[in-house]
Sequence to fold (215 residues):
Amino acid sequence: MNPADWRTYLVTQASLSGGRSTEEVVRAAIDGGVDVVQLREKDTSARERYELGCGLRGLTERAGVDLIVNDRIDIAEAVGAEGVHLGQSDLPVSVARDLLGSEATIGCSTSTVAEAERAEAEGADYLGVGAVYVTESKAVPEENSGIGPERVREIAEVVSIPIVGIGGITAENAPEVVEAGASSVAVISEIAAAEDPAGATEALSEAVRDGESRA
Fold:
């Protein structure tokens, strides 16, 4: 699936999943219509992430859902994921492209206009822009936390690749993020910690469609 066609993007984190396994959450999110799953699980070993990734690949492939691996180009390649998502401290996008090839989907986390322009120039397929709102789901430097829909809009005005809004996103605030220029939104706890992850995914998709109608 082209990143421009994504609406809901689940980032996995077992520690925020209310005692459920990552596989359980992903199955429920798939039932709810999620478009892409990012394997994160930063507190696990490479072997554990690889084994989990193999299992998730089976789930996502059958459902026609994209699988992206956070940071680890080697694990993305080993499990047959669609691609990788890189941060500012990871290998450059251009290096990932050389290693994974032209068909891979490569995303890059950005918080500023300059970072976004550089990632696009290096060949990123999409940008993860945030943290849009303050979030407790992951450690974010203070200067990159709560950048707001205004920054999303500023970045959308200078890049031509899809933007995924991330950081403190909920079904309530997703429409304004999409209205500002994001084509999809990424969440951890909004789906993973929800009492009904499938229903939460559906609500998030509806919120993105609401934002699309306002844009």
In short: The mean pLDDT is 95. Residues 127 and 163 are 5 Å apart (CA to CA).
